[in-house]
Amino acid sequence: MRLVSTGSRALDALLLGGIRRGLLYSVFGASGSGKTQLCIQLALNSAMAKDRARVVIIDAKGDFRPERMLEMVKATIHEESDGNHSSTYAGSNRRDLGVSRHGTAVYYPDDAMSIIMDRIYVKRAYNTDDVFNSLVDVDSIYNKHDLSLLVVEDSPSLFRLEYGSKSAEGHFRLMRFMHELALRAVLRNTAIIVTNGVASSIKDEHNVGVDAITSDSEGGGREERQIMDRSVSMFAHFKVRLERLSMSNNSWIVANKEKVLGNIFRATLLQPLSRDNIAYFSIVERGIVDL
Predict the structure, then answer these.
(1) N or C: which end of the chain has fewer CB within 10 A?
(2) Structural domain count of the chain
(3) Which domain holds residue 156?
(4) Which residues contact 217 (CB under 8 A, 6 or more apart)?
């Protein structure tokens, strides 16, 4: 069962080796917590694997940019060439990428990026109907190619926007969608990642939790959790919260790491339960790295 690395050994260890086929991952956090960057990193790593499998991204947020992928590839090649390492995109590894549809000659890094992007399919979703219709496109890809990774970016927010957080119909439709994803993860042997925003749970006069959207934990007794949490979590094999940490609270982490000052992220594994459930990483030009 092939694993896909996140780029960080600490984060891979938290996920028991990396992202694994056949499992569904729920990754949530506030805006700027690294969710999209993690998905871009995993999409690139999956598309560059030797098995030439495909990657599908259902983007309900509009944050996936090919320019960022190109930036990461170029930065990686530059770092490898400076360190006198064999490039991922050159020499004996050329056959791993195959031949570009634009011709037999392979030039780096631009043509390598074209080859990689040929293996990544992005489907924009603007409403919940688009989200369900995207599964039809996913199934058509299954009929032609091996699909190693499916990323669903921020879809629960669409269900909340259309139905509200307390709507039984909204929760039912979201659970139906998550069930469809879980089936494809197991039956099609695909790693599936569902990203989500966060809400703060506020206790009303009857001590019942009511969700309110927030971009950060506001304190005051509010419990931060992902949007429409129960309808998502019940289908997830792994549940991970991402946070971007401030320098003032984490000066001990960055004391000897000046190059990543102010760019520290924390991943907390909430499901399954684990004693060592926290990992720290950074995001630089070439992607996700260890501190």
Answers:
(1) N
(2) 1
(3) 3-289
(4) 30, 200, 224
